[in-house]
Design brief:
The chain is mostly helical and 267 residues long. It has a domain of 156 residues: MetI-like fold. The chain is globular, with a radius of gyration of 23 Å.
């Protein structure tokens, strides 16, 4: 009996059971419910009108297109600001790099709503009006660490022997960056793009606070419809559309990483 109990607690499947139960209750079951409600009307009958409504209704479609545009601009700003920062922080000669990396990551420990409220107070103190500019600033500020850290983590893992070999072959600093560092850092850039682009589309609290609810993103449309019982099915359909976009983006990211690895193997 003692051996059976010991064998039970030493099996990996035993310790994995709580995580499996958690995934089933809080990940798989909600996804199944979203899929079911998306293809049902208010009376519980099967329908695809929730998806046709999204295509035919100009407000939701225009908000989605606008959200994608804002996400692209925010992602580009995060790349322009985050890549040089990650490149500098990954330099071994930069003795205080670990401390500065901690300072960049430190805002991630604070709740995103608190950071957004602090940004609103900053604009109020300086007298800058809230609007699209404030929204871009807030999105970039909130999601910039999610761009810096993946790139920094990838750059620190680059084999320095490759850089030294390129320098021994006569490559200057620009050529080393273009031919060696930048291609090898692309997996981190792609991870950063995913971590910035997708949350930007689905967020709603940041846009509501930084624009006084004048500008709504796609997440706001989903949240408003989910909160109302008579449009909950339509909100579920919008959520399913958002999940499909996330899935397609993840597949694209994985295929891009695989191609990068294959190119690295050929080189």
């Amino acid at each position: 009996m003692r051996q059976k109990i010991l064998r039970f607690f030493t099996r990996r499947s035993t310790w994995a059971s709580p995580y499996i139960l958690f995934l089933l209750l809080f990940v798989v079951l909600p996804l199944i419910l979203i899929g079911l409600y998306a293809f049902m009307d208010y009376e519980g009958r099967f329908t695809v009108s929730n998806f046709t409504k999204f295509i035919e209704q100009p407000e939701a479609l225009n908000t989605f297109i606008y959200s994608v545009g804002m996400a692209i601009v925010t992602t580009c700003l995060c790349i322009l600001l985050g890549y040089p920062a990650a490149y500098i922080l990954s330099d071994k000669e930069f003795n205080t790099s670990k401390t500065l990396v901690l300072l960049f990551i430190l805002p991630m420990w604070v709740n995103i709503l608190i950071r957004t409220l602090a940004t609103v107070s900053l604009f109020d103190i300086t007298g800058i009006p809230l609007g699209q500019g404030a929204l871009l600033f807030g999105l970039t500020y909130d999601f910039l660490p999610f761009m810096i850290y993946p790139i920094y983590n990838t750059m620190t893992k680059i084999d320095k022997n490759l850089i030294e070999a390129a320098q021994d072959l006569g490559a200057n600093h620009l050529q080393v960056f273009v031919k060696v560092i930048f291609p090898l850092s692309l997996p981190g850039v792609l991870s950063g793009i995913m971590m910035v682009f997708l949350p930007t589309i689905s967020t709603f609290a940041i846009s509501e606070l930084l624009t006084m609810n004048d500008i709504r993103l796609f997440g706001s449309i989903i949240q408003e419809n989910i909160m109302l019982s008579d449009t909950m099915n339509y909100g579920a359909a919008l959520s399913l559309i958002m999940l499909l976009i996330i899935g397609i983006t993840c597949l694209f990211d994985n295929s891009s990483k695989d191609s990068q690895l294959n190119q690295g193997g050929l080189i």
